[in-house]
């Protein structure tokens, strides 16, 4: 399920991210009976949230009037403001360029979306959650990967190989709710 918001979170004066997240949490509960325990955003959206008047007002009001600079606002503080277990900030990048072309980096998690969801807090696969990363130890794989190298005489080079057998699996899509139109 997805809900588009009206005031984007880069409109620092008019944005209402606290209301938007609360509405998404309630919609997720209504459709699944599960309460969200995480907000997933990228680093750009995180930096925007630190400038939103509604966020700063909530932090300064609960901090006995101490001024809040953007650099003072952490993911943990945002989790407290949103009354959610944790805020996951994705900062990874991917190379969008074709092979051989100059690197052109893009974000893995879009600026356009935020997601409230239930993430697993245990290794018990019976625990309801949106998804899991599954690992199997086939062919010498381990959780952090098995790195090996060997000589390749035909090309006079060294080959480096990593064995890391994992797959991501959506278990319960209703345990997540996307908020769209977060930023432009």
Structural notes for this entry:
By secondary structure, the chain is an alpha+beta fold. It has a single domain, classed as phage-related protein like fold, CATH 3.90.1690. The protein contains four helices and eleven strands; from the N terminus they run βαβαααβββββββββ. The protein has helices spanning 17-32, 43-49, 53-62, 75-82, and strands spanning 2-4, 38-42, 86-90, 93-95, 105-107, 113-117, 131-135, 146-152, 157-163, 166-170, 176-180. The strands form four sheets. A five-stranded mixed beta sheet has the order 1-11-6-2-3. A two-stranded antiparallel ribbon has the order 4-5. The protein has a two-stranded antiparallel sheet with strand order 7-10. The chain is globular, with a radius of gyration of 21 Å. The model has no long low-confidence stretch (mean pLDDT 90).
């Amino acid at each position: 399920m997805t809900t588009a918001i009206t005031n984007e979170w880069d409109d620092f004066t008019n944005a209402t991210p606290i209301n938007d997240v609360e509405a998404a949490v309630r919609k997720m509960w209504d459709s699944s009976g599960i309460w969200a325990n995480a907000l997933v955003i990228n680093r750009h959206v995180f930096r925007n949230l630190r400038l939103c008047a509604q966020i700063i007002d909530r932090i300064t009001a609960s901090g006995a009037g101490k001024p809040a600079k953007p650099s003072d606002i952490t993911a943990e503080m945002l989790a407290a403001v949103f009354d959610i277990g944790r805020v996951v900030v994705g900062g990874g990048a991917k190379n969008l360029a074709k092979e051989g072309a100059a690197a052109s980096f893009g974000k893995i998690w879009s600026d356009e979306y935020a997601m409230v969801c239930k993430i697993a807090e245990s290794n018990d696969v019976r625990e309801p959650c949106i998804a899991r990363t599954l690992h199997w130890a086939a062919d010498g794989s381990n959780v952090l990967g098995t790195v090996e190298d060997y000589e390749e005489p035909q090309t006079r080079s060294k080959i480096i190989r990593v064995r890391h057998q994992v797959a991501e699996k959506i278990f319960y899509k209703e345990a997540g709710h996307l908020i769209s139109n977060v930023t432009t």
